[in-house]
Amino acid sequence: MPSAISASSARTHAPPVDRPRGRRANPWLTLIAVAFGLFMVGLDGSVVSIANPEIGRDLNASTTDLQWVTNAYLLALAAALILGGKLGDRFGRRTFYLIGVAGFTVASVAIGLAGSVEGVIAFRAVQGFFGALLMPNTLGMLRAVFPPKKFGMAVGIWAMVSSVSTALGPIVGGLLVQHVNWESVFYINAPIGVLALVFSALVLPQTKSGGAADEKFDLPGVILLALGLLAVVFGVVKGETWGWTSGGTLGAIGAGLVILLAFGFYETRVAAPLLPMRLFRNPALTIGTVITALNFFVLLGVIFFVMLYLQNVRGFTPVEAGVRTLPLSLASVVASPLGAALTDRFGPRLTMPLGMALQAVACFTMLGWSADSSYATMWPPFIALGLGVGMVMSSSSDAIVGNAPVRDGGVAGGLQATALQIGGALGTSVLVSLISSRVGSTLTGELTSAGAPAQAAAGLSEAKDAVAMGVAPVSDTMPDQLRTAVVEGSHQAFMNGVHTAALVAGVLCVIGAVTAVVGVRRTPDTARH
Prior knowledge:
single chain, mainly alpha, Growth Hormone, Chain: A, 18 helices, globular
């Protein structure tokens, strides 16, 4: 007999407020419609990293400017995701999904036309805000239109689209940057967005929670949550450059956590809260949120250093590097519906820890990589990572949204998406910091071991930031013997950092797997109401 916390048994069965007819009553058309918007946001999330070097060259942008091209989007997205879900629950998920798609599409075109890095940064923030209106309402609509027995499979397909679009970003971005220009990375959203708008307008039903018309909107909650998330995410993304123990980093993260605690306290005392704290009475939902964050911590953090390894250490072009990570994408295609089917039958008590265990295996296997490893040593961990990510994506999404009442479907979707974004930001920042720290402590020794004179090795220690990105600090004026030693020593120092990052990620996956096994299994039957 399945566990009492099985996602399928843990759902309330309240129907959506409106009863659509005709094509709007077909939940599979709803799934296809939201997949367009989801694909656009997922693709954009990873494609920009490939475009950043060209943006820097074309717009004379500094490294700090390029960081803000990514961070402005991330901050706006993280701060508004739960708000986007709440607006959809209250006023209509279809309405705010369409607003999100339209705004995201227009902002994407504006980025390409901006002509300055300041314009790119500003419109990236706008893009992030509209992405926050779009994302949570995809899951909210699926929660409202699919019957409980089919919701798990719908989430599996949703997770597959999300995983594949994220993994395809480097390939698509590499092709566009290499053969067109960096602006095309953003212009590609225009045809996808128009198609999404037209198809969605024809088939999406309007669903909402049906709250009282005179119910007050929780504006103080919106402000507290946005400020708290902004401060935390800002501290996280700046931790790598400011230092994790610096006053600025600790102050931003600490202030954000205090504001979020105040938000949680306030939400227990209002009649119509932005994020109902009662949702967290369900351990499956709470643990699903944590595992979602950990899932993207590992995925985005590992993809970041894998791309540095493939391009800067192995010398592959962006397209070649993207093609070599295709096993990860293909594995996630298989794992997402498989994970959904297993979750429907056995509950997330099986699929969440199984997915985490597969990711742990992938990370620990990467400890055997060297600067000249064959591709035969690379694709097995890519497959294990893709299988694990896809399985966790579908099971944790099902645990979060499937365990929330229908009336809170958008808010639950926003919670899931917020955890995902914060986890991804932490993964990239923390793992890059670990690589940098390890490179800094081993670079001089590795250069000396490779044959570089002690004086030259000591002088090159200043180039640790470049080495932490996989770039050997060589010049055309170096003698061939020294040049060879610097390349060998730098790459070995980088691999030391990669091994440290992979080890930490693997240990976190093991902790996540144990947490899911212990915590979800103990969920009381009463917690799901």
